[in-house]
Write a structure and sequence with these properties.
6-stranded parallel β-sheet, binds zinc ion, 747 residues, TIM Barrel, 26 helices, binds glutamine, globular, 5-methyltetrahydropteroyltriglutamate-homocysteine S-methyltransferase activity, alpha/beta
C-alpha cells in the first residue's frame, strides 16, 4: 500500500524573519497597507513554493496569518471583543485587538498548549457571531492559483470555544452558535475543490476532552448532515487522543501524534480502536524538536501503521510553526549539523520515507540513515556531576530569611521594581550586531553597554524605583544569551521561532552536557551596582525555562539535563552573591508551559521543576534575596508548585489576564513576597494612575501588604524608551500616593 505525505503548518516567519520585518514596518508606518498586503502575499507564496519542493501530496493553507491563526478565526466568525466592536473588520482592527491601542487594552495572550507560541484569546462578551470576509477561502484559492496541492486548515469549533472566554452562553451554546458558520466556511472550501480539510482539535488530547465528547459528537454529526464531514480530518497533536471516541465521529480521518503520545496512540490502534476505513494522518516526524529523525525506525513505524488503515498519510507530529525554517542558511559544525533537522529538512525526511516505501527508491533514505547513525555515535556527553556541594533547600525558613533581608535591604512599604530588561532600542541592537560582525571592538562595545547601563540607572533613580536592574542590554534573549555562554549549547544564526505576534525567539540547541565555565552576568551587574546606593538585582534565567525554551536533547532523561542546567545557574548565583549582589532574580516564565497536557503527569513534572529551581537558588546565604518571575500563563494548576519554589519574592503577570490570576491566590495562603504585574507591557499603551491603584487595591485584598511588591508584568525590552519612562513614572507616583494615604482597608 502506498502512502502519501502532508504537512500541518509551516513557519510564518520566513527564512530571515521577513514576516516580522514586514509587519513591524507597517506598524511603524514605514510601509502602506497595500505594501503590507503585497509583501505578505509574496511571503505566503514563498512558503508554499518552498514546501512544494518536497514532493508533498498536500500543503496546508490557513496556517499563514497576519498575527495569529486563532485571532483570524475570531475575526472570521466576528467574535470581536466588545471594546473593539463597531469597526470595520480589517487589518487594523486585527492588529488593535492583538496589541491594544491608545483607547483599549489588547486581548489576553495565552500559551498554545504546552508550547511557547501564544494565541490571542477570543472574547465572547456581547459578541455577534456572523461570517465575515472569508480569508481562508481566499488563501486557498490563491494556493490553487499557484498550482499548489493545498488543503485548508482551520481550528475546530470545540478547540476554538474551549480556548475562548466570556459571554453568558454555555460551552454547548457557543459551539451551536458557531456550527452554521463553520458549515458555510467548510462548504465554501469543498466547493472550491478542497480534497480534505484539516480541522485542528488539539483540545481532544487534554484531560478536559472527556467533558465535551457529547458536544464534539453533535458538532461533527451536524457537519455530516450538512454533507461536509467526509472531507474533514480531525487533527490532534501534542499527546494521545481517545481513539475509540474519535472513531465514533463521521469524518474522513484523524490526525494523530505518534511522537509525543508516549506510545499510547499506537497501542490503541493495536487494540482495534479505529475502523480500517478511517484515514490516518500519522504525525511521525517530531514537529517540535530539531533533531533528525531515526529514519529507519520511522520506516518501521509506517509499516506497522499500514496494518491499521487503508489510507495512510504521514506528516510531522505538529505544525512546523514550532521549529526554524531551514538549515541551509546556517554554518554549523558538520558533526552537529548532521544530527539536525529544521522545517524543510523534516519535509525532506518525509520525502525520503515516501520514496523508499512507495517506489523502493532508497537513495535519500540511505543518506539520512547514515547521517543519523553517525550522529548517535558522537560523544558529547561524558561529564561527571557533583551534587554534594549544592543545597536544594534554603538554610532557614522564609520568615527568618525575610528578617535578615529586610535589615540588609531596608526597602520602603510597597517596594517598586521592574522585571529586568529595558528597551532593546535600535541602537542597542545595532551595536550588538556591529560587535558580533567585528565592525566594532570589544572595548567599544563594552563602553557602549556601560554607558547604556549608567543612563538607565540614572533614569531609574530619577523615577524613584526602589530595586534597580542593569537592563539586560548585552542580551539578545533571556535563553539564547545563556546558551551562548554555557557549554553544551549550540546557537544558530537564523533558527527563529514565533513566540507571539511579530516576536520570535531563537532557542539554543542543547546537544551535549551542560557546564558553567566562567561568570556570565557578573561584570554588568556589578558595574550597575557600583553606580547606585539602591540595590541592583542580578538577573538570570532559571533551569526549567532554559530547558523549555531550548531544543532539548532526547538521548538523556529530561530531568538530568534540567539538573545539569540548575548546577550551572547555581554557580552564577553564587558568583553574583560573592561579588556583593544582594538580590538575584531567577526567571521561570516557562515553568507553566512545560506542564504536561494530561494531569496524570503533572506531579512528576512539577516535582522535578521545583527541585531544579531550588538546586539553582538554595545555596545562597539567608540574607540574599531570591526573586523569580513568571508570566502569561494560567497559574491556577501550579500555584502550589510556585509556592514550593520558596523564592523570597515572585513577580507574576496579572494585567493581561485582567486579574484572573488573583483568584488563584484565594485558594492558598501565599506568605512569601509577591509582586503582581500592574500593567501590560506588551501594549504600547501607558497605564493611568487609577488603573494601577485599582490593580494594587484588588491584589491587597488577597495578599498581605508587607509581602507585596509593585512592578510591570514583564520585562520592558520590547517597549520604547518614552513609553517605559512614562509608564514607570505613573507606577511610582501611584505607589507614592498609596504610601502616603496608607488606606486602612489595605494596610
Ligand atoms: N528578566 C526578563 C526580562 O525582563 C524576563 C523576561 C520574561 O519573563 N519573559 O526581559
Ligand atoms: Zn515575563
Amino acid at each position: 500500500m502506498t502512502i502519501k505525505t502532508s504537512n500541518l503548518g509551516f513557519p510564518r516567519l520566513g527564512r530571515k524573519r521577513e514576516w516580522k520585518k514586514t509587519i513591524e514596518s507597517y506598524w511603524s508606518n514605514k510601509i502602506s497597507e497595500a505594501e503590507l498586503n503585497q509583501q505578505l502575499t509574496d511571503l505566503h507564496k514563498e512558503n508554499l513554493l518552498l514546501q512544494k519542493n518536497y514532493n508533498l501530496d498536500s500543503i496546508p493553507v490557513g496556517d499563514f496569518s497576519l498575527y495569529d491563526h486563532i485571532l483570524d478565526t475570531s475575526l472570521l466568525f466576528n467574535i470581536i471583543p466588545e471594546r473593539f466592536q463597531g469597526r470595520e473588520v480589517n487589518n487594523d482592527l486585527l492588529f488593535d485587538i492583538a496589541r491594544g491601542n491608545k483607547e483599549h487594552v489588547a486581548s489576553a495572550l495565552i500559551k498554545w498548549f504546552n508550547t511557547n507560541y501564544h494565541y490571542i484569546v477570543p472574547e465572547w462578551d456581547n459578541a455577534e457571531p456572523k461570517l465575515n470576509h472569508n480569508v481562508l477561502l481566499e488563501r486557498f484559492n490563491y494556493a490553487q492559483s499557484l498550482n499548489v496541492n493545498a488543503h485548508p486548515v482551520i481550528v475546530g469549533p470545540i478547540t476554538f470555544v474551549q480556548l475562548s472566554k466570556g459571554g453568558n452562553q454555555t460551552f454547548e451554546e457557543k459551539v451551536q452558535t458557531l456550527l452554521p458558520l463553520y458549515k458555510e466556511v467548510l462548504q465554501s472550501l469543498v466547493d472550491a475543490g478542497a480534497e480534505y480539510i484539516q480541522i485542528d482539535e488539539p483540545v481532544l488530547v487534554t484531560d478536559a476532552s472527556a467533558d465535551f465528547e457529547n458536544i464534539t459528537k453533535q458538532a461533527y454529526d451536524y457537519f455530516a448532515e450538512a454533507g461536509v464531514a467526509s472531507k474533514l480530518v480531525i487533527q490532534t497533536y501534542f499527546e494521545r487522543a481517545n481513539i475509540k471516541f474519535l472513531n465514533t465521529l463521521p469524518v474522513k480521518g484523524f490526525g494523530l501524534d505518534f511522537v509525543h503520545d508516549r506510545g499510547y496512540n499506537l497501542e490503541q490502534l493495536k487494540s482495534g480502536d479505529l475502523d480500517q476505513d478511517k484515514a490516518i494522518y500519522a504525525g511521525i516526524i517530531d514537529g517540535r524538536n530539531v533533531w533528525a529523525a531515526d529514519i529507519a525506525a520511522k520506516k518501521d513505524l509506517i509499516e506497522t501503521l499500514q496494518n491499521y488503515t487503508s489510507e495512510l498519510v504521514v506528516q510531522p507530529s505538529a505544525s512546523l510553526l514550532h521549529v526554524p525554517v531551514s538549515l541551509d542558511d546556517e554554518t554549523l559544525d558538520e558533526t552537529i549539523a548532521e544530527g539536525l533537522s529544521f522545517a524543510t529538512e523534516k519535509l525532506d525526511e518525509l520525502d525520503a520515507l515516501k520514496r523508499v516505501i512507495n517506489d523502493n527508491d532508497s537513495d535519500k533514505f540511505d543518506v539520512l540513515k547514515a547521517r543519523y547513525e553517525r550522529f548517535q555515535n558522537q560523544a558529547f556527553k561524558n561529564l561527571e556531576y557533583d551534587f554534594s556541594q549544592v543545597r536544594d533547600t534554603r538554610q532557614s525558613p522564609f520568615a527568618e530569611r525575610k528578617k535578615q533581608q529586610d535589615a540588609q535591604l531596608n526597602l520602603p512599604d510597597l517596594p517598586t521594581t521592574t522585571i529586568g530588561s529595558f528597551p532593546q532600542s535600535t541602537e542597542v541592537r545595532k551595536q550588538r550586531a556591529d560587535w558580533k560582525n567585528n565592525r566594532i571592538s570589544d572595548e567599544a562595545y563594552k563602553t557602549f553597554l556601560q554607558d547604556e547601563i549608567a543612563r538607565w540607572i540614572k533614569i531609574q533613580e530619577d523615577i524613584g524605583l526602589d530595586v534597580l536592574v542593569h537592563g539586560e542590554f548585552e542580551r539578545n534573549d533571556m535563553v539564547e544569551f545563556f546558551g551562548e555562554k554555557l557549554q553544551g549549547f549550540l546557537v544558530t544564526k537564523f533558527g527563529w521561532v514565533q513566540s507571539y505576534g511579530s516576536r520570535a525567539v531563537k532557542p539554543p540547541i542543547i546537544y551535549g552536557d551542560v557546564k558553567w565555565t566562567e561568570p556570565l552576568t557578573v561584570k554588568e551587574t556589578v558595574y550597575a551596582q557600583n553606580l547606585t546606593d539602591k540595590p541592583v538585582k542580578g538577573m538570570l534565567t532559571g533551569p526549567v525555562t532554559i530547558l523549555n525554551w531550548s531544543f532539548e536533547r532526547v538521548d538523556l532523561p529530561r530531568e538530568d539535563v534540567q539538573d545539569q542546567i540548575a548546577l550551572a545557574i547555581n554557580e552564577e548565583v553564587l558568583a553574583l552573591e560573592a561579588a556583593g549582589i544582594k538580590i538575584v532574580q531567577v526567571d521561570e516564565p516557562a515553568l507553566r508551559e512545560g506542564l504536561p497536557l494530561r494531569s496524570e503527569y503533572h506531579a512528576d513534572y512539577l516535582d522535578k521543576a521545583v527541585h531544579s529551581f531550588k538546586l539553582s537558588t538554595s545555596s545562597v546565604a539567608d540574607a540574599t534575596q531570591i526573586h523569580t518571575h513568571m508570566c502569561y500563563s494560567q497559574f491556577g494548576q501550579i500555584i502550589h508548585a510556585i509556592y514550593d519554589l520558596d523564592a523570597d519574592v515572585i513577580s507574576i503577570e496579572t494585567s493581561r489576564s485582567h486579574g484572573d490570576l488573583i483568584k488563584d491566590f484565594e485558594d492558598i495562603t501565599y506568605d512569601l513576597g509577591i509582586g503582581l504585574g500592574v500593567y501590560d507591557i506588551h501594549s504600547p499603551r501607558i497605564p493611568t494612575e487609577d488603573e494601577i491603584t485599582t490593580a494594587i487595591h484588588r491584589a491587597l485584598q488577597e495578599i498581605d501588604r508587607s509581602l507585596f511588591w509593585v512592578n510591570p508584568d514583564c520585562g520592558l525590552k520590547t517597549r520604547k524608551e518614552d513609553e517605559v519612562r512614562e509608564a514607570l513614572t505613573v507606577l511610582v507616583n501611584s505607589v507614592e500616593k498609596l504610601r502616603e494615604s496608607k488606606d486602612p482597608a489595605t494596610v
